[in-house]
Write a structure and sequence with these properties.
By secondary structure, the chain is mostly helical. About 55% of the residues lie in helices and about 0% in strands.
Length: about 70
């Protein structure tokens, strides 16, 4: 999809330099993917300590439990 963006030149150049990404398109795609990934991780962190799974790993793996 073609889109026209007005981006700060210095910000774009610095991002390309520090990431070693040579094209603006790849840089924007990478930035969007990272934003989505970080947002999903942040959403998962809300469940920390709230999900209690009682899973017996030995049973799942077909092993005898010795304790």
């Amino acid at each position: 999809m073609r889109t026209t963006l007005d981006l700060p030149k210095d910000l774009l150049e610095e991002a390309m330099r520090v990431t070693q990404i040579s094209t603006k398109t790849k840089l924007i795609i990478t930035a969007l993917e990272e934003l989505i990934r970080k947002t999903k991780i942040s959403g998962l962190k809300e469940f920390k300590g709230k999900v209690d799974l009682e899973i017996e790993l030995h049973a799942l793996r077909g092993r005898e439990c010795r304790y």
